[in-house]
Amino acid sequence: MRGRGRLAGERRVEVEAADGSKRTLSATRAVILATGSVPVVPPIDGLRDIRTWDNRDVTSAKHVPDRLVVLGGGAVGVEMAQAWRRLGSREVTVVEAAERLVPNEEAFAGEQLATAFAAEGIAVITGTKLIAAHRDADDAPVTATLEDGRTIAADEILVAVGRRPNTADLGLDTVGLEPGRAVPVDDTLSVPAVPGAWLYAIGDVNGRALFTHMGKYHARVAVDAVIGRQVSDLADRGMVPRVTFTDPQVASVGLTEAQARDQGIDARVVRVGLEQTAGAAIAGEGVTGTAQLVVDESRQVIVGATFTGPDIDGILHSATVAIVGEVPMDRLRHAVAAFPTLSEVWLELGLAYHAERASSDPYTQGASS
Length: 369
Known about the structure:
It contains ten helices and 19 strands. By secondary structure, it is of the alpha+beta class. The strands form six sheets. Strands 15-16-19-18-17 form a five-stranded antiparallel β-sheet, with helices on both faces. Strands 8-7-6-12 form a four-stranded parallel β-sheet. Strand 18 (290-296) and strand 19 (301-309) form a beta hairpin. The longest helix is centred in the middle third of the chain and has 15 residues, at 212-226. The protein is flat. It starts with a strand and ends with a helix.
């Protein structure tokens, strides 16, 4: 049915059509919430009062702004900053409150993006907050004021500081849940706070992992659970893949080094350059990038991987498979990559890991001496 749906009590959904007519549906088995998320607008003076761009506006705009300010240096912010610079924006400025771009990724990824942006003429301001935004009229330029007193003039401002679950007007209160918040679920994607195991929430709305591919995964788990299969959402437990589609790309899965150490994991980090592979030379002159693994030494399995470079997303899934499958490093060294491809970086990572492990082993050191 096409219309606006809201919960209306146990197993009931009210649907309001465009003409204002309403119809109430009753579910015999389950209701699945899949309403996604909406952009966050931070409490910055004047920001809610002026015309801004969100992720939908910036990807459907019909004109190229001469000057663009991007608030937020996460995935959406950096992707769109580079896209519009290449589409013809004369001035693009990214403002990120954290100390680096893509702050949820490894530090080297943000540093490499900043270097690439500088080469393209994209200004990056980190470690500084935006405190005010103003337009004299709806079609007038925007003036953005930073906490250090600097101002930036632009024609458009993209607000890309994150997203929140779209639950403000779903009728959650009719089943005892709090509107405006993520819907808490168990590993079958069922909502345990609602008796009867009839309500499920998948994708961004449950707040677990706000990515389209995770919503698709959640859908498979939830539908299997609804029809009675024994299933469990495992991917959210430190196995979520993500790609920032910039140049260079940032592709990662699982935990960063900091996250692993925060969880008390005895982490060993190995890092190599893409230029160590023949595949990089074939990809183009001067192709560079970085590949890093975070290994749980107690189990000798990978818990995190990050790759940077051109079109590097192509080798991400191999890291995801290694993490989900808990493939030991000693076994992984026998997974031979074809020559000459970028996937040969796995050979270099394996060699680096075993070399570092040997160098830190006192028995090995004693034998070699």
